Amino acid sequence: MIAPAPRRRARRPPQGPEPEDFRLHLPPHPSPGGRDLLLALGALGAAAGIFLAGGRISGRLLPDEEGLQVIVEAPPPPKEIKDPPKPIPPAPREKAVPPPLNQPPPPQFGLEKEATEGNGDMAVATGNTLMQKADTVVKPAPPPPPPEPMLLDQEAVPLEKILPKYPEWAEEQGVTSRVLVMVTIDAQGKVMDARIQKSGGKDFDSAALEAARITRYKPYVEKGRPIPVKFVVPYEFVL
Predict the structure, then answer these.
(1) Which of 3.30.499.10, 3.30.110.10, 3.30.2420.10, 3.80.30.20 is the CATH number of 150-237?
(2) What is the spatial distance between Cα 9 and Cα 199, in angstroms, rounded to a whole number?
(3) Distance CA 181, CA 195 (A)
(4) What pLDDT score was predicted for residue 26?
(5) Rounded to whole angstroms, what are the CA distances from 106 to 13, 44, 109, 132, 208?
(6) 29-54 in b/e burial notation, b at 16+ Cβ within 10 A?
(7) What is the distance between the alpha carbons of residues 166 and 205, in angstroms, rounded to a whole number?
(8) How far is CA 98 from CA 95, 101, 103, in A?
(9) What pLDDT is recorded for position 198?
(10) Does the pTM exceed 0.70?
(11) According to the model, what pLDDT value does residue 59 have?
């Protein structure tokens, strides 16, 4: 198989001579010498040293033999590292004071609960009751309470019978009444208390109480010994 022949481009017709204004005329320059090569290598070495040292261009100028100036910036100063704040120490704890050594325990009375198991129904004091110091001063015993007055079924013997005063309005109108007074006397026969047991009216009650309180009685004797008693005294208001 025969390959096709390559196509040829058509050539553009010449456009005529290039205008004189668009031509660039360069002055002749001599070829660089050995001194120029040394200066170029020195500049490259200085740039490489600045790059390796971590510097960068700044406003600082370094003179050169040919009048060239290389701008080199010094590295920034290291930042000041502040010490971290010191932790606040915790407040000291109060130490417990140990008990003194070789001190006997306080005396105790009673038994522990575990020691009473299996004792049956016997009553045993339990717990740890500490012994208390006895009083140095012996207090006198309080006096015994007075005996309760014995209730009599009749009035005691009066030394002088005092009759109550009849209210004037009741006497004028012919009103009658009856009052019962509970009288209490001591061992000497003196009236200790007088209270209304059955009322007969306000004025009649006042007159009966006044007569009961000023009456003196003969001491009541029981088994050869006078004792306080109480009894009911009836007061009759009749015309």
Answers:
(1) 3.30.2420.10
(2) 162
(3) 6
(4) 54
(5) 137, 100, 10, 10, 68
(6) eeeeeeeeeeeeeeeeeeeeebeeee
(7) 11
(8) 9, 9, 12
(9) 95
(10) no
(11) 46
70 touches 53 (CB < 8 A): no
Tell how strand 191-198 and strand 56-63 pair up.
unpaired
Dihedral sign (CA 223, 226, 232, 233): positive
Domain ranges of the chain: 42-73, 150-237
Q: At CB < 8 A and 24+ separation, what contacts does 42-50 make?
A: 43/68, 43/70, 46/70
Q: Which of 202, 204, 197, 198 is nearest to 166 (CA)?
A: 204
- Rg (the chain; Cα; Å): 70
- Residues with pLDDT less than 70, the chain: 1-34, 49-75, 99-136
Residue type, 48: A
